[in-house]
Amino acid sequence: MIWRLFRWFDWRRKGVKVWHPCNIYKTAILGKGVSVGMFSEIGPDVHIGEGVRIGAMSFIPKGVTIEDNAWIGPRVTFTNDRYPPSDESEWESTTVKSGAALGAGVTVVCGVTIGEGSMVGAGSVVTKDVPAYTIYAGNYAKPILKGEGKED
Question: 108 lies in which domain range?
Fold first, then answer.
């Protein structure tokens, strides 16, 4: 219990805002300026970069990495087990690159990478990699708009 209080003070010092109640495992790493919505769960060994916003009721299990300035909408669910129930050695990792945005209710199947600056529409099911600077939507998520790269 005391360890949790120290962790909470460490998050406060980094500008992390957690809207309670939430379940954040003590081995999860949260960067500066992260905001976590109510009723969210962040599993063990999850890495969340700086400036990330996580909406309410999101589920982020072990094996997920979210890079800086990504936006995770409410009720977004990540998986880490493609064929449950399986041994932890068979779990797959997922990466959300910098600046990516996932709309409300998105489900991300494990083993994919969501590219930098890309967007995934609300309610989509992501089963394959999403390239950088593209918009995907649907069940199963398909490209809606393909970007040519970041414009200055």
Answer: 16-145
Residue 74 to residue 54: CA distance in whole angstroms: 7
Question: Does residue 117 fall inside a structural domain?
Answer: yes
Token representation of residue 42 = 């962040």
Q: Write out the two tokens for 70.
A: 């990504």
Q: CATH number for the domain including 62?
A: 2.160.10.10
Which amino acid appears at position 96 of this protein? V
Which residues, 6 or more positions from 131, have their beta carbon under 8 angstroms from its beta carbon? 115, 118, 143, 146
d(CA 105, CA 112): 17
pLDDT in tens, the chain (152 residues): 444 444 544 555 578 888 889 999 989 999 999 999 999 999 999 999 999 999 999 999 999 999 999 999 999 999 999 888 888 889 999 999 999 999 999 999 999 999 999 999 999 999 999 999 999 999 888 888 777 655 44
